[in-house]
Sequence to fold (249 residues):
Amino acid sequence: MSESSPAEPWKPAYKRILLKLSGEAFGQAGKVGISLDETLKLSEQLRRVARMGTQVAVVVGGGNLLRGAQFSAGLSTVKQATADAMGMLATVMNGLALQDSLESLDIETRLMSAVPMDTVCEPYIRRRAVRHLENGRVVILAGGTGNPFVTTDTAAALRGREIGADLLMKATKVDGVYDSDPDKNPHAERYDRLTFQKALHDRLKVMDVSAFDMCSEAKLPVLVFNYRADRAIERAVAGHPIGTLITAD
Fold:
């Protein structure tokens, strides 16, 4: 498929997508905190996707601000359940930053959290989230699932199934799924396409097992791609070959 110029918007290949952004997408490498520049770069991509006509939901992580795992080592006095709750609050902070950044670009949004905090965002209610999407709003989903001991991958898979997404897009810093660790093996080969069955059989690290099983059971395609590549999110939504697409067959 040939690429059109930015003056000629690409046509979307998917009606509704669920984009999973880790906390690191909101920060700068090796630094803690929210980078407004990085957040704006994400927002500019999402603006163009929304204007393509695709319904966009975004699950945000909070690792740029706090990781629950940092309390699991040594003699920490913070229990894991408490640490996970702190991590869920961090995702709301990222969600607020993304919301204001998108709205500064004239994109209507709704921030919804699985952890109730009515003064800053809406509670997550599936039917309400779907209605926001149908009305053209970008829906930002924070607070994970509202439960400890659950990864953002699992939250993304759950929300993707709940809202009836056509594609779960896992944004990463690598350009897809490899047959071995490309950082350790210079000869590692990247897959363009995979089946859920092969990924499980070969024990490829796509996402955590519970999230992957959930997507496999629902036959919800998963795209692993490098969101930092030029117009990556737009290209993915337009169906251009990018990253690794995992499907049922």
Q: What stands out?
A: Helices lie at 36-52, 80-103, 126-134, 152-163, 196-201, 209-218, 232-237. Residues 16-247 form a domain with the Carbamate kinase fold (CATH 3.40.1160.10).
